[in-house]
Specification:
Layout (H helix, E strand, L loop, with lengths): L2 H16 L6 H15 L6 H23 L4 H10 L11 E3 L4 H9 L4 E3 L5 H8 L5 E4 L2 H4 L2 H4 L5 E3 L6 H12 L15 E4 L19 E4 L5 E3 L2 H13 L7
Parallel strand pairs: 1-2, 1-3, 3-4
Antiparallel strand pairs: 5-6, 6-7
Bound molecules: zinc ion.
Length: about 250
């Protein structure tokens, strides 16, 4: 399974299973993704394998949430109508509220597509979550008390405002058991593609050109990246949040 498909599997299973707060979320996500990988071969296309495993995971999640909702009719209705019965199309891994622009940038550096919505209305933010494979990251305790989040019809994580940006990032990584992936564009969350140095020569600052050979372009916003001093600082921070290490 290629990296894009694996990321899609993980985001679906992470957002479904996070609603149940399992003790080892990363392991549970990995097991379900591995099941899709194992099933997807020449005879079973990837989409069919994803459908089978994600549909079963969705039904198990809904059944467990309904059992926990103790017969509250409104919670029942929210859970049944908000969690998509079909595997959702790939989308952002996270929707971050207006206070979490810094966290969104760190998550992108760690390889996750984090959408950031400065100034968005609460209802519009919640609407983006309906049928989405994303997890909502918010600092708003009152928002988390809304029925659609309290019932876990929408997957959300309350991020502490007590933490500084880096503390928030380390906390989200630990609580969701995120693994470090290939970095994405920190400005928009797009995937980075390696490009030949010569093809972007006119976009490289003259002082940088002799010193760097590896360049990347964002598929979404077309920004050019290289591993300059800024990236080395980002790298040092990421190494602290992910002690296991990673090679770019
Ligand atoms: Zn970009």
């Amino acid at each position: 399974m290629n990296e894009t498909n694996l990321d899609h599997c993980e985001q679906i299973f992470r957002s479904l299973l996070w609603r149940l707060q399992p003790a080892e979320l990363a392991d549970a996500v990995e097991r379900r993704s591995a099941e899709v990988c194992g099933m997807a071969d020449g005879a079973t296309p990837w989409e069919a394998a994803l459908y089978i495993v994600s549909r079963r995971t969705r039904d198990e999640t809904v059944a467990e949430l309904l059992a926990r909702s103790a017969g509250k009719l409104r919670s029942r209705r929210l859970i049944e109508t908000t969690i998509a019965p079909l595997p959702p199309a790939a989308g952002p891994d996270f929707h971050c509220d207006a206070a979490l622009g810094g966290l969104a940038r760190w998550l992108r550096a760690a390889g996750y597509d984090a959408a950031y919505w400065p100034g968005i209305d609460d209802d519009d933010l919640l609407r983006k979550m309906i049928g989405s494979p994303a997890i909502l990251l918010t600092t708003d305790r009152r928002l988390c008390q809304r029925g659609v989040i309290a019932s876990r019809a929408i997957a959300a994580l309350l991020v502490s405002v007590e933490h500084k940006k880096r503390g928030q990032f380390a906390d989200v990584v630990a609580r969701l058991g995120l693994r470090r992936r290939s970095p994405r564009c920190m400005a928009c969350g797009g995937r980075l593609q390696a490009v030949a140095k010569e093809t972007v020569r006119d976009r490289i600052p003259p002082k940088t050109y002799p010193w760097r050979d590896d360049y990347y372009i964002c598929e979404s916003c077309d920004r050019l990246f290289w591993q300059g001093t800024h990236w080395q600082r980002v790298e040092a921070e990421l190494a602290q949040a992910f002690p296991g290490g990673f090679a770019f």
